[in-house]
Each structure stands twice: as C-alpha cells, then as structure tokens.
Backbone:
C-alpha cells in the first residue's frame, strides 16, 4: 500500500506524582525510543514532541502515516552449490526450502551480493499493517523500558513502573487505539489539575485539541512553556524588588518539573539572617525549599527576598507566601545556630578534632590525611607545580587546616550544606582572622567540583588541589577501592580527570609517575614497597586511560594520542602538546613513509629485545655517529640505501634533540618526516634477514637503534597505514 493518509497522534499516560528527577529520564528515553520505533515500523511522521509533567507523559505527533507501506523482503535459502545436484536437479535442501516458503521450486530465485556467494531465495511482499495496530502493540513495551531510577509494584499486578498508572489516552486521527496496559484500556479522557480542577475528567476529542483542553483544566503540559513562565516571572518580580535572580539552571529545571500550573511569587527573609554568608542562604533556599535567591541589581550582596513558584493560581496567595516564609525561617535559624556555634573554635582547634574522624578503615584518620597532603604539596611545588623553591607560607598554612570544616556543625550535621565544603571553611577562616590568600586557597582547591566547573585560580590552589586528589587515588587504591565497571564509590575517575585538567590548563610539567610514587610513599607504614609498586603500575595505567579519553574529547584523534602516550604519558601537558603536533602530520606522504618504516622495524624485530632498557641511550649513540650498545658501529653495512639511512639519521639527531629541548614538537615531526624517503628506500632495496648471520645480526642491531630513536618521540605504528603491517 502506498500514499498512506497522514494522521495526528496523541498518547498520554497518567500516573501518581513523579519526582522531578524522573522527568528528564522519561522525556529523553521516550523521545528517542518513539522516533526509533516509527523508523523501525516504516511509519513516516513529522512534528514529534514529548511533553511531561509530574502526573503525565504525552507523545504528540503532528502527523503519522495511518498505514504501513507494503515491503519486499528476501528470504535466504541454501547456497546454490548445495541447491543443485551434479545433473542440475534440485537437492532435498532446495526442495525443503521451497516447501517451507509455500512456493514451487521453479519460483525460487538465484540471489546474492557477490560477497557471500550466490544462494537460493525467494522474494516476498509483506502487506503493511494499520498504524493503530502496530502502535497499540509496541507502545507498552517502550514505556515499560524507561530506565527510571526506581520502579514499584502496586495492587496485585506484576507490572513495574515509577508510580501507579491511573489513565491512558491514545488517539490516532479520530480513532482510539486498542491499547491496554496495567489493566487499563486507552481512551480519550485525561484528567485536569489535581487542585485547580479537582482532577476532573478532561475529554480530548482529537490530538490537536490536547493542549487547549488541558490548559482549560489548569494544566500546562509543555515543559518549555512552564520553564518560560518560571524564568520570566522570577525576572519580573526580582526587577520590581530592585534585584536579579541568582541563576541556577539545575534548580530551574527541577522547579519546572515539580508543577503543572506555575505561579511565581516573592517572599521575605528577615535581615537578621544576613549574618550568614551568602552561600549558606542560597543553599538553604535551594536545598530545603527549592527557592531562588535574589541578588542586588547593582552588584553586591543578596536582597532580603526569595523567589518561589506555587503549583496553582493566585487564590489565597498571601497565605501561601506566609507559610513558605515560616518554613524558611526555621531552616535559616538552624544555619545561624551552626554558624555561631562553629566559630567558638579556631581552625587549628577544629583540625585537631580530625584525629577522631576515620578517613578509610585501616588507613588512618582525616588528620593523618592532612599531614600527607601537606608533605606532598611541598614536593609537588618543587617538582613541577611551583617555582622550584620552597612553597609560599599561605600554601603551607592552607594545607595544614585544609579539612577543618569537616568537623564543623555546618558541614557535619547541616546535611544540605555538605556541598559547601571548602567554601564554609574559607568563611570560617576569614572570620577567625586568616589571611585572604589562605581563605581563597581553602575554597579554590576543591575545584573543579564537577566536569563543568572551573579550575583552581592560581598555582598554589592548583598544587593543593592536585596533592589532595593524588592522596585520594593512592589511599583508595591501596585500600582496594579501585573503580570496577560502573562502580566508583570514591569518584576516583573524577579526581583523576580533575588532576589532568589542572595540569594541562596550567601547562605544568609534572612527572605523574614520580608524583604518584610520592603519594604512595605517604602510606609506607600501612603498605609495603611491593604493594605500593603494584599500585603504582595500576594507577599509571588508570591515569593514562583517563588522559587518552580527555585528549580525544578535546579534539585530538585517538591514533595520535595512542602514538604519543607510551613515550610521553607521564607528563600530561607534554603528552597533549606532542599529540596536537602529531595530528598535523598524519596525512603527509613523507610522514606516512616514516610511520610505515617504523612499523616494519617493529615487525621484523618482533621477538627480539625491544624493552626500554635495551633501547636506552639510542639518541646519545646516534649523536656520536651511531653504534650498538656494545660499541659496534655500522661501518659494515654494505648497501647504499642503509649507508644513506645511517648517515641521514646521524645527521638529523642533533637537530631533533635541540627541537625537542626547545619544545618545538611540530619541528621534531617535520624533521622526522624528512627521513621518511630514506627509510622507505632502505626497506625497498635491502634484505634485512640476510643469509649471512653476521650481516643479519648487524642489520637487526641497526634497525633496533633506528626504532629506539623514533620510539623516543612516538609509537608511529599507531598512525601507520594498515598495509604497513605486512
């Protein structure tokens, strides 16, 4: 059937109220899944929208083909070689295939794509089915596959869903779909807002009437429209109060998904609570009540008002405002109690209490961790993250008290304020008279708190941030908490990425192997040298894997990254620079000759000694004209091509090393590319595995020295053409 009529479509599933965090999950899954389902069913469509509120999920499509098109399929049978006997007569296999498909043997066709060989087959036309039937069959499966964070049973049914299902609407054109789910049959009756319309039935005559019908019943089903009302309403009220909303996209999304009929309003905050830091007030507003703070329009601090949204109209709105103010006052009163109580002790006194807080079971207290971080940050400052001298006094002081806020009432018992760790420490430190530099360090070293967060400001904060995270990696690894699959209870992947981002952003030249070894040394009393060495190897592999992903996400090809990591993976900044430089040479003809020759070297030498120890010193030997580790020179090489290659490599080495020392990695690859024709000529004219044992050994030794020199810069086999493997 062709030219199927296009019909509007509506599906709505109504439930008990869902948590706001569930809505983005269901919107994305159903949006992607329904589009894929229509493609699978060969149902043309346009104008697909997925709408969701806490009590309903709707799929609204401007037009869907009302009938599936007829399709022709090929049914594959036995190979032709097995379908005909020597005399050309059909074999039992061929006859059985024809019988199974309800056709005469003479109606079977010879099919094949030329790759898998010819085979016996038939072409069959499958009649298209009505879209209503197909959607009624497949939609329940799509809905039941939504990956909600939690699901539940209700009643006597075995069905699982996020919340009990209360109603179903499914209309294609003017027809109600024969869809059943959770013991309910789909109809054309939805429900209105639970308070504004008392959840009364709302009849939907046709899909095009859906939005207007629900809006008339107090429900705004379109999350984009609800979001606009919340944002614009808040901005307008804040302007009237002389301020502007403290922007928070996460909170805006949550509030949008908490309600069906948004009505913005402002409430008051007593001035007495402004003894608290702004961050505490903003957090209390958000975490407890889902309110927005309002900042003064001309900059500066917060206004004594908050912006919130009611799920309903303006009826008795004054009572709603007073109720919200009353609840908020209780929350802020708790915070003010914490604030005053915590300042009875100094940062040093709080730090001493960390001795009673276990960091990891069997791996000491948080005070022990503070001591390790302080020692490690001094080493990092002198070996890549600082100026090479002694760390500044403010860094030493910040490291000494960097965890004191963990035992304050605000962080330990304040629950919703735990995300302010570091920030609260900085505020308490300032109140205790610590210098602004120390206070800034206490707050900044926690950054980045997430993948989207900024990095620490300043070298001292970066050093403290890296030291703290390296100690986390070392301790958790030794304690047996290495990430496995999706499990990463101590966020070691996030900590590793934070370290890498900081080092690369600051162009810091830090040897991660040495830094990790230093971090592991901090646990010498708890783990022997063998255990620490094993952990070091595992950690280096773990870190390099994260570095590979980070550089690829930054736009460098996977091949270029994998080529440079073996030689430069211990220094993330250096590895990033080498990878970006290599990226520009991958497609150049001379460079490909070099890469191809490198891969041939490795293939020929496979099984021979290629470990780093055996290749050490290649550059120095080439600087002196080229020789094997035992002092043998290459004067015995007889062929012009190998003599030319040896001379070209020896001549190039001083320049290569000078370019590397200057950090001109593009120049290094340009100079190496110049050797491409020479190494290609070598492999085209020289027989490496000569019959004479002495000559064969000499050529192997020569290639090992060439390979070792090139491997100092990159593993070029990663960017060599595939045919070079032969």
Residues:
């Amino acid at each position: 059937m062709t030219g199927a009529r296009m019909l509007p479509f509506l599906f709505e599933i109504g439930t008990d109220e869902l948590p706001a965090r569930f809505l983005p999950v269901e919107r994305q899954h159903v949006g992607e899944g329904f589009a894929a389902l229509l493609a699978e069913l060969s149902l043309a469509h346009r104008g697909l929208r997925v709408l969701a509120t806490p009590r309903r999920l709707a799929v609204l499509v401007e037009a869907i083909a009302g009938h599936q098109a007829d399709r022709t399929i090929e049914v594959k049978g036995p190979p032709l070689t097995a379908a005909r006997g020597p005399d050309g007569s059909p074999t039992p296999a061929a006859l059985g295939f024809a019988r199974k498909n309800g056709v005469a043997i003479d109606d079977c066709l010879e099919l094949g794509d030329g790759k898998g060989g010819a085979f016996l087959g038939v072409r069959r036309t499958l009649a298209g089915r009505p879209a209503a039937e197909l959607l009624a069959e497949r939609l329940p499966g799509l809905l039941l596959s939504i990956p909600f964070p939690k699901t539940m049973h209700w009643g006597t049914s075995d069905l699982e869903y996020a919340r009990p299902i209360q109603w179903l609407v499914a209309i294609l054109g003017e027809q109600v779909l024969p869809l059943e789910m959770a013991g309910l049959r789909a109809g054309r009756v939805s429900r209105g807002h639970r308070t504004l319309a008392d959840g009364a039935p709302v009849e939907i005559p046709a899909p095009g009437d859906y939005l207007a019908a629900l809006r008339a019943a107090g429900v705004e089903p379109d999350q984009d429209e609800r979001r606009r009302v919340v944002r614009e309403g808040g901005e307008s009220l804040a302007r009237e109060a002389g301020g502007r909303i403290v922007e928070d996209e996460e909170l805006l999304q949550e509030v949008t998904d908490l309600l069906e009929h948004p009505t913005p309003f402002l409430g008051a905050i007593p001035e007495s609570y402004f003894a608290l830091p702004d961050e505490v007030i903003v957090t209390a507003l958000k975490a407890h009540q889902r309110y927005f703070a309002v900042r003064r329009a001309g900059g500066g601090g917060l206004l004594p008002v908050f912006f919130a949204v009611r799920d309903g109209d303006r009826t008795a709105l004054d009572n709603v405002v007073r109720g919200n103010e009353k609840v908020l006052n209780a929350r802020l009163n708790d915070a003010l109690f914490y604030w005053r109580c915590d300042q009875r002790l100094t940062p040093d006194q709080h730090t001493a209490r960390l001795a009673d807080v276990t960091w990891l079971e069997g791996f000491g207290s948080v005070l022990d961790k503070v001591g390790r971080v302080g020692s490690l940050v001094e080493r990092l400052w002198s070996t890549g993250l600082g100026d090479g001298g002694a760390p500044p006094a403010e860094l030493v002081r910040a490291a000494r008290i960097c965890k004191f806020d963990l035992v304050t009432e605000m962080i330990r018992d304040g629950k919703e304020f735990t995300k302010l760790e570091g920030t609260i420490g900085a505020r308490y430190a300032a109140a205790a008279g610590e210098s602004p530099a120390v206070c800034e360090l206490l707050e900044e070293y926690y950054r980045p708190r997430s993948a989207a967060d900024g990095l620490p400001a300043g070298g001292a904060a970066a050093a403290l941030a890296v030291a703290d995270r390296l100690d986390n990696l070392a301790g958790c690894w030794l304690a047996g908490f290495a990430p496995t699959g999706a499990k990463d209870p101590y966020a070691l992947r996030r900590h590793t990425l934070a370290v890498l981002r900081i080092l690369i952003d600051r162009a810091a030249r830090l040897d991660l192997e040495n830094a990790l070894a230093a971090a592991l040394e901090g646990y010498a009393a708890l783990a022997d040298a063998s255990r620490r060495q094993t952990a070091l190897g595992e950690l280096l592999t773990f870190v390099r894997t994260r570095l590979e992903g980070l550089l690829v996400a930054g736009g460098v090809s996977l091949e270029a990254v994998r080529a440079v990591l073996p030689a430069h993976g211990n220094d993330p900044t250096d590895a990033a620079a080498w990878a970006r430089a290599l990226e520009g040479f991958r497609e150049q003809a001379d460079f490909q000759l070099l890469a191809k020759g490198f891969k041939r070297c490795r293939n020929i030498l496979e099984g021979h000694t290629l470990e780093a120890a055996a290749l050490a010193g290649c550059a120095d030997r080439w600087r002196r004209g080229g020789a094997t580790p035992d002092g043998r020179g290459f004067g015995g090489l007889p062929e012009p091509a190998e003599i030319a290659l040896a001379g070209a490599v020896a001549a190039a080495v001083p320049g290569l090393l000078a370019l590397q020392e200057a950090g001109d990695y593009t120049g290094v690859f340009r100079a190496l590319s110049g050797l491409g024709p020479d190494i290609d000529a070598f492999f085209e004219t020289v027989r490496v595995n000569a019959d004479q044992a002495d000559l064969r050994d000499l050529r192997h030794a020569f290639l090992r020295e060439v390979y070792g020199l090139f491997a100092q810069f990159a593993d070029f086999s990663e960017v060599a053409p595939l045919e070079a493997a032969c």
